[in-house]
Amino acid sequence: MANLRLALAQFDFPVGAIAANTERVRSLLRQARDTHHADVIAFPELTLCGYPPEDLLLRPAVLAACANALPALAAEARGIAAYVGHPHSLGEVYNAASLLRDGEVALTVHKQALPNYAVFDEKRYFRPGHESYVCEIRGVQVGLLICEDIWEIEPAAKAVANGAELLLVINASPFDTEKSAQREELLIRRARENNVAIAYLNLVGGQDDLLFDGGSLLVDADGTISARAATFEDVLLIADYDSVTRRFSAPHWPHDIDASRTARVYAALVRGTRDYIEKNNFPGVLLGLSGGIDSALTVAIAVDAIGAERVSAVMLPTRYTSQLSLDEAAAQARTLAVDYQVLSIEPSFQAFLQTLAPVFADRALDTTEENLQARCRGVMLMALSNKFGRMLLSTGNKSEMAVGYATIYGDMCGGYAPLKDVYKTEVFALARWRNAQADGKREIAGTTCWVISPVVIDRPPSAELRDNQTDQDSLPAYDVLDAILERFVEGEQSQAEIIAAGYDEAMVRRIARLVLINEYKRRQSAPGPRISRRAFGRDRRYPISSGWR
């Protein structure tokens, strides 16, 4: 009988940070060996250069730095084996991983299945491998695979044909709201069809608009899920494998207390926001706090991501700003203890109107004057960002971005947009979920205060750019709008199909037209965390200039 102790390094390995990633591998290797007495430690896909490295892979110095790091890490791999992901240049470049042990690079495997769909573009950079390698570690035959290899039938089958009883799979599998269920279904199927146990390690962290959720898994040979790791947490996972029963034991794995969709999305937005801020070395963030639901949720995410002391909120009122908005923005700022300023944009708005008056003299008021207010706010917020070095967060949501209900060079200003891939209906759900957490309701000076006021959640959404304005003056109700958008954007349904499903024809055609003509705005929008399978940007790449309607 052979028992194997595995360590799975579910950690963030930032793109391009080769020296820091190498040091983290070294530290975790020592911890796994010296503290946990592990026989093997696995690290995520492309550990050394981070994932996805994109065109960094076209720089010879990046490939050389990764190659130079391997021998130094191999020297540390004594008394333990380490499975480390890295690019491998042999004239052509491979997505590779090496098994380090006994002070040497014992084996290097090449990823066989290169994904080239959705957010993936691996065929631009890599050539495929053709072999499934198996090695013996402490009496156990271990098949070594990389990410997409487990999604195809042949790599796992070849590894088992070569004698593998356990598959060790390292991954950089991006998050979306449906992905964890799909992974589990796949791994259960792959384990059962091959009668092989699977240790599945996933990367964690935010990389620009991509999110990696961790959620590493252990699957016994009969397809039983033995353990699920927590999502969006950096953790060294320890598990024991019994080669007789082909089962795992991992009693101390941290897991998600709340595994609901809303909880996972909120954790994703917080992690994505935090990592974008930290990886780009911003000292803090600022945002326009309007008294509306989008900015209220955004400031809560920012505080949860980096702490109140690094968040500034600014109310930028005009003649159309209601007292309710002023009161609710101030109350939330007090509740969250963020720096808060009120700077009226009325003087700058008036200056623009006066300057333009001779040119606009014979023209009626329209959205031009409304957009001027948004652009005044954008100028003010960017000035504060420049002066104090804090990155501006854009507060728009996916519903608005889909139909162009946002002002370019106005409320679209910002370096990062936490809600960019979140439909408005989910914004409301996330706000209610956040309030339901233990610290969602607070007692401050004898008054009950909420992280996000129920008044803000329940009030009709409004841009407040004219008297008595609401979003539904120009848009359908958000539950209807979002349902149509999900069919048109995520589902790629035709207008005819959506109409046949029971939606008003004129409304469907109008919304579809708005989505199509506002591509130019989205191309100029800030990046934001991807949580769906059809996020604007990497997933959905429509031409700006197109005759297709």
TrEMBL record:
Please describe what this protein does: Catalyzes the ATP-dependent amidation of deamido-NAD to form NAD. Uses L-glutamine as a nitrogen source.
**Entry binding sites for deamido-NAD(+):** N371, E400, K521
State any single GO MF term: ATP binding
The record places the active site at E45 (proton acceptor), K111 (for glutaminase activity), C147 (nucleophile)
What name does the UniProt record give this protein? Answer: Glutamine-dependent NAD(+) synthetase
Q: Where does L-glutamine bind?
A: Y117, S173, K179
To which pathway does this protein belong?
Cofactor biosynthesis; NAD(+) biosynthesis; NAD(+) from deamido-NAD(+) (L-Gln route): step 1/1
Say if the entry is tagged with keyword Ribosomal protein: no
- Reactions this protein catalyses: deamido-NAD(+) + L-glutamine + ATP + H2O = L-glutamate + AMP + diphosphate + NAD(+) + H(+)
- Record: residues binding ATP: G288, L289, S290, G291, G292, I293, D294, S295, T395
CN hydrolase domain spans which residues? 4-243
Recorded source organism is Pseudolysobacter antarcticus
Keyword RNA-binding: yes or no? no
Could you state one GO biological process linked to this protein? NAD+ biosynthetic process
